[in-house]
Amino acid sequence: MAATEILARSSTLTNVGWIGYIIIGALAGWIAGKIVKGGGSGILMNIVIGVIGALIGGFLLSFFLNTGGGGWWFTLFTAILGSVILLWIVGMVRKGS
User: Fold this and answer.
1) FRET pair for 74, CA 20 to 30 Å: which of 3, 14, 57, 80?
2) Do the beta carbons of residue 56 and residue 48 sit within 8 Å?
């Protein structure tokens, strides 16, 4: 798989918009923090975790679904899924070191 195809899969924009991504990122990061380790990480880290999580979740779900057609709820679900995966991986790396 070419690098451009991987990037295109992970950054497919939905009809939410950039402000929506920030809001959804903050919510997803906070929710993922509650699921994985029992607490939030502060608003800026929640946004970062949520946005990176949305990219991860969007990439993974793009193999099974048309992620470009999703709205707010689908984007939030995708961001939470990716954020939980991200925090789980980070937790595993921290435990290993």
Assistant:
1) 3
2) no
Cβ 78 vs Cβ 64: under 8 Å = no
Nearest to 51 by CA among 20, 74, 73: 20
Task: Report how far apart, in Å, the C-alpha atoms of 89 and of each of 18, 29, 35, 53 are.
Answer: 26, 14, 14, 11
Structure tokens at 2: 């070419």
Q: Whole-model pTM above 0.70? A: yes
Amino acid, res. 45: M
Q: Which amino acid is at 56?
A: I
CB 67 within 8 A of CB 81: no
3-state SS, 14-83, equals CCCCHHHHHHHHHHHHHHHHHHHCCCCCCHHHHHHHHHHHHHHHHHHHCCCCCHHHCCHHHHHHHHHHHH
Q: Each residue of 11-53: pLDDT tens digit?
A: 555 566 778 888 888 899 999 988 987 555 678 888 888 889 9
